[in-house]
Design goal:
Helix content is about 50%, strand content about 5%. The chain is built from three helices and two strands, in the order H-E-H-H-E.
């Protein structure tokens, strides 16, 4: 008998995607926390079209090499 894990639904903080987009676009750096935020956002089913568009733009920028990954938790010093 197989056991299935059940995870609670992800709840993003309102405005988190817009804030993430501005911060990453301005700094050009994607921190570890940013990557986890993007992962959570991609797994969320109830994003607005605007939020999906912002995520798509960030992912395209990362794919093109326009964003630098960082293992730091925050770009804010």
């Amino acid at each position: 008998m197989s056991k299935h894990l059940t995870f609670p639904p992800l709840q993003l903080i309102p405005g988190a995607i817009a804030e993430l987009f501005v911060q990453v676009s301005t700094s050009g750096v994607v921190t570890l926390a940013d990557r986890y935020g993007l992962m959570a956002a991609v797994l969320t089913e109830d994003l607005s079209d605007e939020e999906r568009c912002a995520i798509d733009r960030l992912l395209r920028s990362a794919y093109r090499g326009a964003l630098q990954p960082s293992d730091e938790l925050s770009a804010i010093q």
